[in-house]
Amino acid sequence: MVRQYKRWRPRAVTVPAALLAAAILSVAPAAAQTVKVGVILTYSGPQASLGSQIDKGFSLYIKEHEKELPPGVKLEVVKRDDGGPNPAVAKRLAQELVTRDHVQLLTGVVWTPNAGAIAPLATEASIPFIVMNASASNLTRQSPFLTRVSFTQWQTAMPIGQWAAKTGLKKGYTAVSDFAPGHDAEAAFIKGYKDGGGEIIGSVRFPLANPDFAPFIQRVKDAKPDVLYIFIPSGAQATSVMKAYADLGLKAAGITLVGPMDLVPDYELPNMGDAPEGLVTSGNYSSAATRPQNKAFVAAWKKAYGEDSIPDFMAVGGWDGMAAIFDVIKQTKGQFTGEQAMGILSHWKNPESPRGPIAIDPETRDIVQNIYIRRTEKQDGHLANIEFDTVPNVKDAWKELNPAK
Predict the structure, then answer these.
(1) How many Å apart are CA 152 and CA 399, to the nearest integer?
(2) pTM
(3) What is the pLDDT of residues 328-342, one digit of tens each?
(4) 56, HSE (Cβ side, Cα atoms, 13 Å)
(5) 3-state secondary structure string, 169-219?
(6) N or C terminus: which one in the chain shows less Cβ crowding within 10 Å?
(7) Could you tell me whether strands 366-379 and 358-361 are parallel, antiparallel, or unpaired per DSSP bridges?
């Protein structure tokens, strides 16, 4: 039986250090047969679709696999709404999940700044924190109790930079959102592109909140690069930036647009018109993939959420994150310390993910996975991201370029 608590809007709460310490002692080890999982996601505000995708992904996994829980073990999911990129709110919510709700695992989190605010609490409480989206490379170094099942921007941006250079696009320009994942995406694309012989002639950064993309895109058009790399945090911003690209005529001006999967999220494609057609992107997932595991996942998704509903890479992050949590519960029969759970999570593998085989690198606690080069094309009358090349078993290049001291 799975109980999912209703979402709760944050209020100003300050948790004294002594109270937090007492709560930590009260939850380790976890001896109860009810396992409580605290989820922090963006359920409201202009980026609520991102939290919704992740929520639907992990909720679907629970629905499909609840029968696999050990006999007598129950799962409670306690949801909290951070409202968007707000580290102070995320930290407060995590504190309350630990001290008041006594969760044994933390998960979710769309935004890197929010995940960074939660990481020290996970360390102090010895509570595993399974990140389902936030993608800045250095996150896993911020807590030994943090692992990530999603991706890093270095994993997706560097391969598309290499692809752009290889296809003969000699002059490049980058345009990214001005926060940690955007900075990672910018650096990773430039690294892959320059390694392939390309030249960067300009870079620009958008404000994270409520950007007006047109002035920035016009600046790119005036610079006349061969290729433009754009990163934004998915969702409605993806549709807005694609509209600016189309309205300002960059394609007609001979400027090739490339980007990560965030630029053309599968569920936003119906809102974009024909602007993305022919666009080449890189990512760890497409709902159009023909892998048997993905076909089964998409079929279950549409049965649960409607024929017109489309899962995206964030949905798969939610699905795989809950798969990892279920493995911890099954291997321990629901009784584990934080250290025991991390021992399982740091070596976790899933050869049957909808995105292909995935594994956690025990040295970094970060995801290793295939990265696909995709082209946005018409399929059955609708736009879809069609995978046409695979870069197998990609680790986070930033960690390899910046070894831990």
Answers:
(1) 10
(2) 0.91
(3) 999 999 999 999 999
(4) 23
(5) CCEEEEEEECCHHHHHHHHHHHHHHHHCCCEEEEEEEECCCCCCHHHHHHH
(6) C
(7) antiparallel
